[in-house]
Amino acid sequence: MPRYFLELAYKGTAFSGFQVQENAVTIQSEVEKAFQVLHREEVKFTGSSRTDTGVHALQNFFHFDFDGAINPQFVYKMNAILSGDIAIRNLFLMPDGAHCRFDALSREYVYRIHRFKDPFAQGTSYFFPYKLDFGLMEQAAAMVKDQTNFFAFCKTNTQVKNFNCRINVSQWIREGEEVVYNIEGNRFLRGMVRLLTASMLKVGRQQLSLQDFESFFHNEVKCGYSVPAKGLFLKRVAFSENYFPAPGLHLKAI
Hints:
Layout: E1 3-10, H1 27-39, E2 46-47, E3 56-65, H2 74-81, E4 86-94, E5 106-114, E6 126-127, H3 134-145, E7 167-175, E8 178-185, H4 192-204, H5 210-215, E9 232-238, E10 250-252
Parallel strand pairs: 3-9, 5-6
Antiparallel strand pairs: 1-3, 1-4, 2-3, 4-10, 5-8, 5-9, 7-8
Family: Belongs to the tRNA pseudouridine synthase TruA family.
Catalytic activity: uridine(38/39/40) in tRNA = pseudouridine(38/39/40) in tRNA
Keywords: Isomerase, tRNA processing
């Protein structure tokens, strides 16, 4: 049966996370319903990267199997059915066995913080109007790349076999009055980016020393800090070079 990858972006404010949940409106449930409306057939989707309630994505993926005829205006019509908070970007016809979760090489997140009150940033950035020592925060971010055990930066009751992650990018970026934490790695634990961000803000406020921050990676104690979901974006899901079909085999918006 043909396998397709669906690329999408979304604003997560109004949704109870990414994955289907009973009696809850999620990204997956809305996309599956839209597909059923368009093709008159129920199809189950598999997600690449789960995001929590209120978290956004600039890029994420589903894959699904479907042996019917795909509507030639698939992207346009799916977007017409879906609310303005979800945008379908592309549909790719993939080789058999392609898997949007297991084939991903890395994922990249950004956490956005605005320092001065901005009505246009509400819902997509965290208002944090306090003095910060960026030198200390940058040192803390550099430490993250040297670590592998992220037990302290994982929500409790998370069902995983291990807490090991390989982080390739960890940096703070200042963009005018906005501050952005950028992190990219091979995998992420539940709540990990928000817990790391909150801890480094504590470092920047000089309420947590660099030594105490580093100790979280060795002492198997939960850090206990977090920031709101609204500032977090899944920015990119990376696959190997030439993983996707050549242009012309996917459907773009018209």
